[in-house]
Automatic annotation (TrEMBL):
It comes from the Bacteria. Residues 44-176 form the Serine aminopeptidase S33 domain. This is Esterase/lipase/thioesterase family protein. The lineage of its organism: Bacteria, Pseudomonadati, Myxococcota, Myxococcia, Myxococcales. InterPro entries: AB_hydrolase_fold (IPR029058), FrsA_esterase (IPR050261), Hydrolase_4 (IPR022742). Transmembrane segments: none annotated.
Length: 280
């Protein structure tokens, strides 16, 4: 379980959100820092999980959008990122303990609120890789790799061309194991089927790091209710910044259905989701 939050050094939050600093202890062995912006009672709460090499600062656009329609928002820096100290990244494995500690802290801080998670790339992997599924009410996964083998291979090819494919096994041996984490521990595609929360998968249709075929395979491995949004023209980029209006319609509509109690509902325009992708 995470320790109670106390004021401390924290990543900067958007000034207009009137957020307070949060500090909690994670099972990863790290002290995790972030910030919480409180929303309307009954509107639900959303945990934002950034990607590798990023921080809570990269989630500011999503935080503003969510706070503007009443959600409470918790954004954290993973271990070894931003204000959460120095540590080797494990590509989602130990970071999954940070995600779990943050969910537990949020549930204790806002009892009775329904909780959603938006996980970006490594953040989405961290939401899936724990020993048991996160106890949340909605899960949004953006640009999440299905296996670390595929993630390394795709990046090597994108950076080095055909030679990258040949060097990928060597790169993987240099990267892993790390802090006891092996490639076999980094397979979100094997864990997503255990997740029972309604799921929305987002994928850039032109993503060279997580090709569309791999995102579709991840989606197929998930149980219903689920939906898939393939973002036309998007690579491995900030999908909110890339397609802001449509992102806010789709993600906002999904969270609205799953997190708000009836008395706290706010008008959020919702885009229709094609029947072929499901409708959670």
């Amino acid at each position: 379980m995470s320790a109670p939050a106390r004021a401390g050094r924290a990543p900067p939050a958007p000034a207009e959100l009137d957020a307070r600093p949060v500090e909690l202890r994670s099972g990863s062995g790290s002290t995790i820092r972030g910030w919480l912006a409180r929303g309307h009672p009954g509107a639900g709460a959303v945990l934002l999980l950034h990607g590798i090499g990023a921080s809570a600062a990269e989630m500011a656009g999503r935080a503003r959008f969510l706070a503007a329609v009443g959600y409470s928002v918790l954004a954290i820096d993973f271990r070894g990122h931003g204000a959460s100290g120095s540590a080797q990244t494990t590509y989602g494995a130990l970071e999954s303990r940070d995600a779990r500690a943050a969910v537990e802290w949020l549930r204790a801080a806002l009892p009775g609120e329904r909780i959603g998670v938006i996980g970006i790339s490594m953040g989405g992997a961290a939401a899936l890789l724990g020993p048991v599924p996160l106890k949340v009410d909605a899960l949004v996964l953006e640009s999440v790799y299905p296996t670390i083998d595929a993630a390394i291979r795709n990046r090597a090819r994108a950076w080095l061309g055909p030679l990258g494919g040949l060097l990928a096994p060597l790169v993987e041996r240099l990267m892993l194991p790390r802090q006891g984490v092996r490639a076999a521990d980094l397979r979100p595609v094997d864990r997503i089927g255990a997740q029972t929360a309604p799921l929305l998968v987002l994928a850039g249709a032109a993503d060279p790091y997580t090709p569309l075929a791999e995102s579709r395979a991840l989606y197929r491995s998930a149980r219903a209710p689920k939906a898939l949004w393939e973002v036309p023209g998007a690579g491995h980029v900030d999908l909110h910044a890339f397609a802001r209006t449509e992102y806010e319609r789709r993600v906002g509509g999904f969270l609205d259905r799953r997190l708000r109690v009836q008395t706290a509902r706010a008008p959020i325009a919702e885009a229709p989701i094609a029947a072929a992708t499901g409708r959670p």
